[in-house]
Amino acid sequence: MVVHLQRTEEQTDLVFHALADPTRRDIVRLAMQGEYSVSELARHYPMSFAAVQKHVAVLEHAQLVSKRRQGREQLVRSRLDTVRDTSALLDQFAALWRDRLDRFGDVLAAQEGNPS
Amino acid sequence: MTVTTVLTDKEAKTLTLTAQFAAPIDRVWQLWADPRKLERWWGPPTYPATMVQHDLRAGGRVTYFMTGPEGDQHHGWWHVVRADAPTTIEFEDGFADNDGTPNPDMPVTTTRVTLDEHADGGTRMIVESTFPSDEALAQLVEMGMVEGLTEAMGQMDALLD
């Protein structure tokens, strides 16, 4: 069975760019647990509201979080729905194990030449 | 390529990978049984694993942490359900806090590894992972992406046909 991933290459680049920053990773992690307003998020980090808002915009562009307006607040949450489809999830997990087993094969092959 | 087949079963929430190696079964087993060898492949190059405790017996524990590019540490554990050298390992696999205490809020995956030797001396390895729920799976994938477990997703392009 061929592994199919739901994301296009371009989306993948966006996701990786978005997750390359520790603050943005942390925002995704926080917003997995529920909705946070941008001002609530801003209180978690030693940076300005505007800086946090920029981080949220990058995450939103990568479809890792969604925003909705409630009154004067913008509420942010992780878009687990982008990865929620079970088949796609299993495929992504398969990719993790595939990488792992490729490394497994490499370690075995390296020993072949130099048995220890 | 190491992995020959990947099967996913959406209903049972299982993932089954089959890999073929030229090495004899005892050599393949050592990559699980020897913690120094295990840590060479368990984590991706950007998040190498360090095994802390490694007791590969039924009821035993394996604890480890992976170190990220910023020095960030991510702890994990296995509870060994079954270990029969050199053919079978079954373990539950979860996340832990920074002091190594299992985190009960994170999902636990059950993995069974089966090795069998071919007449030609090579070894087939089957890895079957079962996830407790769709939500747990979503959480794990999100964590994996967040913590870099899936390495560069660029590598995943190779899987796209």
Could you characterize the architecture of this molecule?
- The complex is a heterodimer of chains A (116) and B (161).
- Chain A is an alpha+beta fold and 116 residues long.
- Chain A has two domains: 9-81, Winged helix-like DNA-binding domain superfamily/Winged helix DNA-binding domain (Arc Repressor Mutant, subunit A), CATH 1.10.10.10; 85-116.
- Chain A is 59% helix and 12% strand.
- Chain A is built from five helices and three strands.
- Chain A has helices spanning 9-19, 22-30, 38-44, 49-61, 86-113, and strands at 36-37, 65-70, 73-78.
- Chain A has a three-stranded antiparallel β-sheet with strand order 1-3-2.
- Chain B has a single domain, classed as Alpha-D-Glucose-1,6-Bisphosphate, Chain A, domain 4 (2-Layer Sandwich), CATH 3.30.530.20.
- Chain B has helices spanning 25-33, 35-38, 134-146; strands at 3-9, 14-21, 49-54, 61-67, 73-84, 88-96, 109-117, 123-130.
- Chain B has an eight-stranded antiparallel β-sheet with strand order 1-2-8-7-6-5-4-3.
- Chain B is globular, with a radius of gyration of 16 Å.
- The model of chain B is unreliable at 146-161 (pLDDT under 50).
- Classes of the chains: A alpha+beta (116), B alpha+beta (161).
- Chains A and B meet through helix 1, helix 2 and helix 5 of A and strand 1, strand 2, helix 1, strand 8 and helix 3 of B.
